[in-house]
Amino acid sequence: MQTEKNKFTLWLLAWPIFVELLLQLLLGVVDTLMVSRVSDDAVAVVGLANQVFQAMMILFMTVASGAGILIAQKIGAKQQEAARTVAIMAVTVSAAIGVVLSMILYQEALPLARLFQLEERLLPLAQTYISIVGSGMVLTALTAALSTIIRNTGNTKGPMITAIGMNVIHIVFNYGFIYGELGFPQLGLTGVAISTLVSRLLATCLLLFMFVTAFERRISWGDLLVFNRKLFGAILKIGWPMGINMSSWVLSQLTIYTILATLGARELATRTYLNTLESICFMLGFSIALAVQIQIAHLYGSGNIKEAYRSGYRGTWIGMGLVGFNSLILFFTFKSFLSFFTSDAGIVQLGMSCLGLTLVLQPGKMLNMGFGNALSAIGDTRFNMVISLISMWGLAAGLSYYLGLHLGWGLAGIYVAMICDEYLRGILVIIRWRQKKYLRQAEARKASGAGLENVRQEGMGLHA
């Protein structure tokens, strides 16, 4: 049986996260690949719709992300009951938000599609896809919250197993609905949306089964009414800057997608294909960054401050090496992969013209993600929020408009803007981590606590 310390080693945390995220990514790749057999227009719709869904997810991910870090800290501090209460509140609040978002997306699918300047001929496809997949946003909220909670208890294998099952089901249903095989009706993009909904429902059921036994004391239906104002305040203290950070990123990406939609469906489809391939390249580094966040939060909660500081560097440099290696693989196989997704020569040529820029982008993303997650793990989330608001809008979105539209650089100009954004934030989070502001405060509290304990013991000795 694994000890708690062994559960929180970087490798044991990272490899199941990698498999889970890779399989979740494959869910998107399968969507993109199979939808591309319908049409490139359908791919453009799915790409834009997924950006809308990500924007909506911020509302419940604010709670889930803050809760995840707090759970790892509490477990590190040997406060299992507090961690359990935090988890219960995160699930119930996320589910409530998810229900509201489901109703909004189902009823307002067409106005949302029009809001992002989608071409008129794509609106019927967008309305169908957004309304069906969006109606299951409550399932997305639950899977996100449950996966985050289970992962931060040190059990990263559970969400991985769920991702495997979810992908298998999704692939089978996609194949059936798109091609009219296995006794399914041929429904095209509508079938892809239904497939997504069904696979998420089954994943939610499996994660709920794991959730009820995730802590020392089993969670029952009656526990869902538990609410602790102090702990919920602690969740929001960590979570709300993370929520603004996430919203800043997603909304800036939506702005960029709107710029791309203005450029045309070809640019929008190319960016969707490129984003899929880049995500495969970056996935291992991203899993390392998430594992580092869990590990540092646990070390920070247990009072092991020096090891927490070292873990930030170790995890980020390992991630940089892995991302660099994957980028080289992408460089040599890029054209073959892109040609596999689409036969449109214009899309392939546009993607190839941006290849060098995509490779420069990846290490900057890892630098920013590694140290940014390290800061979040110790509760230093406001700094990330501030620099994100400035850089994402000033550089990622603002410079994308200037270079992409005003100067006419198109998709290449947008990539230049994203590179500037990632490297600026990466440099700033390194500087912040080296300053050790929150870590020094934790060391001071630890020293103060030890001093009080010594005084108490000396007093007891004198009394004796």
TrEMBL record:
NCBIfam families found in the cross-reference section: matE
Keywords, ordered alphabetically: Cell membrane, Membrane, Transmembrane, Transmembrane helix, Transport
Protein name as annotated: Transporter YisQ
Coiled-coil boundaries: none
Keyword Transmembrane helix: yes
Principal cellular location given in the protein's record: membrane
Keyword Disulfide bond included in the entry's annotation: no
Annotated localization: Cell membrane
CDD domains xrefs: MATE_like_8
Topology term for the membrane: Multi-pass membrane protein
Name of the encoding gene: yisQ
Domain of life per record: Bacteria
Bilayer-crossing regions: 12-33, 53-73, 85-106, 126-149, 161-180, 192-215, 235-260, 280-300, 312-334, 340-361, 382-403, 409-431
